[in-house]
Design goal:
This protein is about 75% helix and about 5% strand. With about 150 residues, the protein is mainly α. The chain has two domains: about 1-80, Orthogonal Bundle (434 Repressor (Amino-terminal Domain)); about 80-145. It has a two-stranded antiparallel sheet. It is elongated. It starts with a strand and ends with a helix.
Length: about 150
């Protein structure tokens, strides 16, 4: 599965148009509707199966070099746009993890032999881990958005 965004979809559309290939012909070739191709090229879909994208590109051009170039361009453009969002989602996921972890520790029954100091140590370790993950993800985002 390949992630898509408006820019990567526009690249596909521009490529198709530059080769004078009609969207309806692409739709027929991959056995789908004109509406699917239209929505795909507008960026309405967030993912596409790799084999479908390759079939579309191969229909648009027989030139293997062009096929590889456009495929890699679409794939890298989509990844470039989705990595920062994926990183942000990971930060949120990690923050939820720490909150859930705190809830579990706070709800432990008195019958469980864990003293308050041990509980606080576990919470602190979890917080430290989450801060390390956040820093790594923020650094990754900075390197993607502001490369040297």
């Amino acid at each position: 599965m390949i992630s898509l965004n408006v820019k990567s979809c526009q690249i596909l559309k521009d490529f198709r148009i530059s080769k004078n290939v009609k969207a309806k012909d692409v739709a027929i070739h991959i056995n789908t509707s004109n509406a699917y191709i239209s929505k795909l090229e507008k960026g309405d879909y967030k993912t596409i199966e790799e084999i479908i994208l390759l079939r579309i590109i191969r229909y648009i051009t027989n030139n293997e070099i062009e096929q590889n170039e456009i495929f890699n361009k679409i794939k890298s453009m989509a990844e470039e746009q989705t990595l920062p969002q994926q990183a942000k989602e990971k930060i949120i996921e990690l923050e939820l993890y720490i909150k859930d972890f705190q809830k579990v520790l706070n709800s432990m029954d008195d019958n469980i032999s864990i003293n308050e100091q041990m509980k606080e140590t576990l919470i602190q370790q979890a917080k430290e881990n989450i801060n390390i993950y956040k820093k790594v993800i923020h650094d990754l985002i900075d390197n993607i958005l502001l490369p040297e």
